[in-house]
Specification:
Protein name: Histone deacetylase
Strand order of the largest sheet: 2-1-3-8-7-4-5-6
Number of helices: 12
CATH topology: Arginase, Chain A
CATH architecture: 3-Layer(aba) Sandwich
Bound molecules: zinc ion
GO molecular function: histone deacetylase activity, hydrolytic mechanism; metal ion binding
CATH class: Alpha Beta
Structural class: alpha/beta
CATH superfamily: Histone deacetylase domain
Strand content: 5-15%
Catalytic activity: N(6)-acetyl-L-lysyl-[histone] + H2O = L-lysyl-[histone] + acetate
Keywords: Chromatin regulator, Hydrolase, Metal-binding, Nucleus, Repressor, Transcription, Transcription regulation
Organism: Cyanidioschyzon merolae (strain NIES-3377 / 10D)
Radius of gyration: 20 Å
Order of helices and strands: EHEHHHHEHEHEEHEHEHHH
């Protein structure tokens, strides 16, 4: 039987905070839109059905305030998101719709009822997840409604409006000198990379499909950061058909080297489930077990960890994946047979938590290709060793004061206000 014990012997328990809001499943991007917030309600329901809620601290997420969102986003953009609804569109706001990339007909980022509340709940969970780690009350915080990695300072992009990840990292920077961001969504984590492209206080690593005009078009191996941030953006461009074995072969040595070189105080991991096989938009061939192996591997380093959702357009598989990853993070073995739950019929006919890869999908990532990408990245990381600009002193979180007493807040906000540098390959 497959179980969360399969790798790394991770049955030891860590304190896990879980942000659960069933209302978030009620928001609706539109009939033909692939993003279905309903997947969150299914995931939470499986958490209840499996009894996992009994082993973690469950919180209803607070809505982030506009002021909190403006630590990264522009004031006029946030005002627009708060005040514009499908019913209030007038000629006056048409230019804003265009400028902020919201509400285009058949566009990626529609203006839907409750949009601001949806963004505020997603961001509130991620910010408060960061605070749980900082206060030392949790070792791991999970917000599956977060992970919206494409949102920019003044622009919606790729189904994302407010970048909860950037906001959570800014919060973590108030305490931790260095924060590591890891992104395993099938799409490049461009919004997060861009926000921290010029700083060495955040190292971003994104594993994603690159090439063939795949969205968002950025994330080549040579895009490595700029100025003080040079070398601190890591991109692992991959091809169609990536399978479990190939993914762990490239993920594990790169993450091991990143952590060895960078010694982060906290890790934020975006677990976009569109890198699974059978996704409506993705082109990888990972199973739930293969996807979760990456999460288990990062957990094995025992560094405070904020775990977020992201893409994922086959809602049954998204729920399978995030339920299983919750169990992996808890260090609890779960039955591969899904127990009775409100969405029981969704999982017919096999009612299995696990999925099979697509046999007909060829893995275009040859051993040779992966080896070449890996050596380029390892060489990039080697050059960071002993880099004079980064403060390499390790600071265990437990000896630090509670969030309110931290005086490095000004520095964190300075980083947010720096003008991001656009990647030269932006689409
Ligand atoms: Zn994605």
């Amino acid at each position: 039987m497959l179980s969360s014990q399969a790798l790394y012997g991770s049955t030891d328990r860590l304190r896990v905070a879980y942000f659960m809001d069933f209302d978030v499943g009620g928001y609706y991007y539109g009939q033909h839109h692939p993003m279905k917030p309903h997947r969150m309600a299914i995931t939470h329901n499986l958490c209840l059905a499996y009894g996992l809620y009994r082993h973690m601290d469950v919180y209803k997420p607070r809505k982030a305030s506009p002021e909190e969102c403006e630590k990264f986003h522009a004031h006029d953009y946030i005002e627009f998101l708060r005040n514009t609804t499908p019913d209030t569109i007038t000629d006056d706001v048409l230019d804003q719709l265009q400028r902020f990339n919201v509400g285009r007909q058949h566009g990626d980022c529609p203006l839907f009822d409750g949009l601001w509340d949806f963004c505020a709940v997603s961001a509130g969970g991620s910010i408060d997840g960061a605070r749980k780690l900082m206060s030392g009350t949790s070792d791991i915080a999970i917000n599956w409604a977060g992970g919206l990695h494409h949102a920019k300072k003044s622009e919606a992009s790729g189904f994302c409006y407010v970048n909860d990840i950037v906001l959570a990292i800014l919060e973590l920077l108030r305490l931790y000198p260095r924060v590591l961001y890891i992104d395993i969504d099938v799409h490049h984590g461009d919004g997060v990379e861009e926000a921290f492209y010029t700083t060495d206080r955040v190292l971003t690593v994104s594993f994603h499909k690159y090439g063939d005009n795949f969205f968002p078009g950025t994330g080549d191996v040579w895009d490595r950061g700029y100025g003080r941030g040079e070398g601190y953006a890591v991109n692992v461009p991959l091809k169609d058909g990536m399978d479990d074995a190939g993914f762990s072969r490239i993920f594990e040595p790169i993450i091991t080297k990143v952590i060895e070189v960078y010694q982060p105080g906290a890790i934020v991991m975006q677990c976009g489930a569109d890198s699974l096989a059978h996704d409506r938009l993705g082109c990888f061939n990972l199973t739930v077990q293969g996807h979760a192996n990456a999460v288990a591997f990062v957990r094995s380093f025992r560094i405070p960890m904020l775990v977020l959702g992201g893409g994922g357009y086959n809602i049954r598989n998204v729920a399978r994946c995030w339920l299983f990853e919750t169990s992996v993070l808890l260090g609890i073995s779960v039955d591969a047979q899904i127990p009775y739950n409100d969405y029981w019929e969704y999982f017919a006919p096999e009612y299995s938590l696990h999925i099979q890869p697509m046999r007909e999908l060829e893995n275009q990532n040859s051993r040779d290709y992966l080896e070449k990408v890996k050596s380029k990245v390892i060489e990039q990381l080697r050059q960071l060793e002993g880099a004079p600009s980064v403060q390499m002193k390790h600071m265990p979180p437990s000896i630090w004061p509670a969030t309110d007493e931290i005086d490095s807040e000004d520095e964190a906000e300075d980083i947010a206000s720096e003008d991001p540098v656009s990647s030269p390959t932006a689409s």
